[in-house]
Amino acid sequence: MAVITIASHKGGVGKSTLAFHLAGVLALLDSSDGQVLVIDGDENRSVLGWAGKNESGNLPFEVVTLATQAKWFQTGNRAKHIIIDTQARPSRDDLKEIAGDSDLLIIPTPPQSLSIDTLPLFLDDLRSLGVITPYTFLLTLVDARSKDAEAARAYLTSMNEPLLEGKMRLFSAFQKAADQGVLVRDARAETGKRDKNAGVAWGDCMDVGKEVWEILEQMKESTCG
Ligand SMILES: Nc1ncnc2c1ncn2[C@@H]1O[C@H](COP(=O)(O)OP(=O)(O)OP(=O)(O)O)[C@@H](O)[C@H]1O
Ligand SMILES: [Mg+2]
Q1: 221 alpha carbon to ligand 1 midpoint, in Å?
Q2: What angle do CA 35, 188, 28 make, to 5 degrees?
Q3: CA of 209 to the centre of ligand 1 (A)
Q4: Partners of 3 in the β-ladder
Q5: Residues near ligand 2 ion, CB 5 Å cutoff
Q6: Strands 35-41 and 61-65
Q7: Nearest ligand 1 atom to alpha carbon 46
């Protein structure tokens, strides 16, 4: 079982969207026993709210809050992966506790220079707290028409910071998926038909999810070996 925390120093960077879809992808990739669990650690309760809107009951993961997680485990449920969504700008104590207890920390980051400029502060926080959890950045809200993502990738590489190859591009299908409580692959347009970008948006999620899955597998191998 792996615990993956999604955290960032900024709000609105796609943390909850990532938590929701990474949970969906990992549930599909991992056929072992147990469930993928999202712990919604944000007071906004975005992920819990989105899952609550799902009418078809086809979400392949479950969502609890920090307060209800104990009950979930007490009633005999078993998690094969846990994804923790956090609120923006977590306090130093929260960051230390949540990130410190995780196997992997993912830091979603839109490529715009402003967020990139403030990253070192977040990393300094992590380091000054003694958090040694492996982490990686992920580019989110990527506008495919702009060169921002390439610049951000070059910047992070020059800083020797880990960055996932995959990225989450900007698609209004993600917003629709959130409104409809479904994974983006099932997002519908106003006409009721499947959103025209649902497939490519889901492809981004699959790419990111597979990469994370590979990282988890490598971590397992290095622990066992
Ligand atoms: N790749 C994307 N393309 C288009 N819209 C997106 C994408 N990712 C997220 N969004 C939308 O942007 C908004 C913010 O996303 P989200 O709630 O995931 O960010 P967050 O980092 O969790 O925010 P907060 O810090 O407030 O918790 C939401 O309305 C979401 O539907
Ligand atoms: Mg959120």
Answers
A1: 33
A2: 20
A3: 17
A4: 82
A5: 15-16, 42, 46
A6: parallel
A7: 17
Nearest C-alpha to atom 6 of ligand 1 is from which residue?
174
Closest CA to 169 of 108, 113, 120, 87: 108
* pLDDT tens for the 225 residues of the chain, in order: 899 999 988 899 999 999 999 999 999 999 999 999 999 999 889 999 999 999 988 899 999 999 999 999 999 999 999 999 999 888 888 888 888 889 999 999 999 866 667 777 888 888 888 888 899 999 999 998 989 999 999 989 988 999 999 999 999 999 999 999 999 999 999 999 999 999 999 999 999 999 999 999 999 888 776
DSSP state of 111: S
Ligand located closest to 8 CA: 1
pTM of this structure: 0.95
- Distance (Å) from CA 20 to ligand 1 centroid: 11
DSSP conformation letters of 12-31:
SSSHHHHHHHHHHHHHHH--
